[in-house]
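During the reporting period the student researcher (J.K.) took over the structure-prediction task from the postdoctoral fellow and processed the backlog of single-chain submissions. One of the processed entries is reproduced below for the supervisory committee.
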Amino acid sequence: MISWSDLWTVSYTVAGVAFVASAAGLVAVRLLAARSVYTNLTVVAAVTVVATVTGFVLIAKEMFISQGDLDLVMAVVVISGIAGFAVALLVGRRIAAASRSLLNSVQEVGRSGSYHRPTAVLPAELAGLSDALERAHGRLTEARDRERALETSRRELVAWVSHDLRAPLAGLRAMAEALEDGVVADPYTVETYHGQIRKETDRLTLMIDDLFELSRIHAGALRLSRRPVSLGELIGEALTSAEPLARAKGVRLHGSWEACRPLMVDTAEVGRALRNLITNAVRHTPSDGSIEVEGDEESGMATVCVSDSCGGIPEEHLPRVFDVAFRGETARTPGPSEGAGLGLSIARGIIEAHAGQIGVRNAGPGCQFMIRLPLAAGAGASSGLPRSQRRGAGSSREGILT
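J.K. obtained the following structure tokens:
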């Protein structure tokens, strides 16, 4: 059995050798920090083997081990050290190869614009890094595509608004010059020109208001003054606002809604979004057509569906319906009461600013716009008529608009 003195001798000898070898190894690793992983692993393996052999030789001399035993143990230690050193070299080469493969994939992004995962088997850490790079590249690609789409929308908006502004301005200038030069003198024509000038001025004001609202939305400067409001109140006010346009075109409006918890929203902004949807439906619904506006509660969200009879939207246009200035038609000139074609874009910005969702799909004889808004927390159901009675009120409203 080994004595305490021998154990102490072995301990401080091994500790001293380990300290010196570790210090030398740390210095070497620090000096070679910028070199490859392969080189650093080689240094680690060399330090381990040298420390083991040196420690054993010093212990053997202090313990007076016989030459035969010393040669035998030295052979075992040297062979084990060589095996460990070889394994370390192989591991280092494998890690270095995996690192080069990952580097090549990253460099390929600059040439091809896309990231391809390395085909080589990567260690767990490098595989995690590759996954993170793949996700980051995916997010960057999506952001770049969104930026390109936004830039395209901006260019289209500038072109379309320039066209839409030029037409009424040209008309205003022609009428103003006719009045100024006395070309038009009879009272009826003068009155007609004055009325037309007022209409064109109102249309330009509406277009400018739409542009200002959209710029606030895109700049994140849309300030919301939230207050609790019932879904029926929002729908009712939007229907009332759309009455003149629907009556003039002969379009029937139906409104119905379920009693549900109040919404905590900016009533002016959400009301504008609803009016934009209903007005858009009226403009695209033929005379003697009908529009259905339904409100309900679903999965803790207030839902509003605006269904029209426009005949549907081509499938290739559905993803772009809410894009800036998209009208889905060749002729870009809006009607006398239309804005700059930004109503749906503004509606989407307002709804998303309220943490809501908006979408569109083809349904029945036309298309259906859907809005989902979060309900106010901790509030009971809003008071109001049941659905059946509210449908009766909608029928009465239809009679007014026919």
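The committee noted the following: The CA atoms of residues 173 and 197 lie 9 Å apart.
J.K. will present the remaining backlog at the next meeting.
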